[in-house]
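re: the backbone from monday

yeah here it is again, tokenized this time
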């Protein structure tokens, strides 16, 4: 049997989602809690990877339960609320499980995702309650210009200029579905949705769009940055603390287990 687990976390204390040899990862904490409660070793596969300091509101991962296991399957199917409560009692304060559901046996949290959505949060003043959850800047930004620049992303598929160097992906092509800035109370938020993302892509895009917002890069200049297919031509990568994995979208058919 295969299950999807949806959870949220504050990534400040972690080296990222994926297990690493040099720090504590969210994956490690969640696998440990699941293995303890279900009394069988659990391995998780996430919808995507987040770097150190990045947060998630609705991250998804899958895990398998073998047919010959001694796990109480009622806990996973009929009494999932009790499982969620038990997990949240055992997990650290900055990780919380939201849902556990059975999916089709061939469902895959990473490969079946139709899209992924991220947000980047910025503030322009000191707020001690948002210190590790937003990026604070000390300059003004032209929101209208940045939204005009965000539309340029729809014109392209190859985003090599915004990719971390020396990654092992086969292609740097992505399809952008949403990209826009908006003011939400005291925060300036950039939302981006795509079928896939490259390593460091969102943070590099935000840093480059901010150059447009500071009127140090023109819209045509942004096109030249993308067409250069060179990371050195783009803006700096903004800090991880402002980045949130919002959600992944899946086909309805995976829920027909």
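seq for it, each position gets an aa:
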């Amino acid at each position: 049997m295969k299950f999807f687990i949806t959870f949220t976390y504050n990534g400040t204390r972690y080296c990222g989602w994926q297990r690493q040899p040099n720090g504590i990862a969210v994956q490690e904490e969640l696998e440990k809690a699941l293995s303890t409660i279900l009394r069988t070793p659990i391995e998780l596969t996430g919808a995507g990877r987040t770097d150190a300091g990045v947060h998630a509101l609705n991250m998804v991962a899958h895990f398998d339960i073998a047919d010959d296991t001694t796990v109480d399957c009622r806990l996973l199917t009929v009494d999932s609320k009790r499982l969620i409560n038990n997990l949240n009692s055992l997990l650290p304060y900055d990780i919380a499980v939201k849902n556990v559901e059975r999916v089709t046996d061939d469902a895959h949290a990473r490969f079946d995702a139709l899209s992924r959505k991220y947000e980047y949060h910025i503030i322009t003043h000191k707020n001690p309650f948002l210190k590790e959850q937003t990026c604070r800047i000390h300059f003004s930004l032209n929101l209208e210009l940045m939204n005009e620049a965000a539309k340029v992303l729809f014109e392209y598929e190859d985003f090599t200029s915004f990719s971390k160097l020396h990654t092992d992906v086969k292609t740097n092509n992505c399809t952008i579905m949403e990209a826009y800035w908006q003011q939400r109370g005291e925060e300036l938020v950039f939302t981006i949705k795509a079928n896939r993302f490259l390593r460091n892509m969102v943070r590099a895009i935000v840093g480059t769009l901010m150059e447009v917002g500071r009127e140090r890069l023109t819209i045509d200049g942004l096109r030249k940055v993308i067409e250069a297919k060179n990371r050195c031509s783009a803006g700096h990568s903004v800090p991880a603390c402002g980045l949130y994995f919002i959600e992944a979208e899946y086909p309805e058919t995976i829920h027909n287990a």
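The domain at 2-111 is CATH 3.30.70.580 (Alpha-Beta Plaits). The beta strands are 2-9, 45-46, 55-64, 95-103, 115-123, 135-136, 176-184, 187-194, 243-249.
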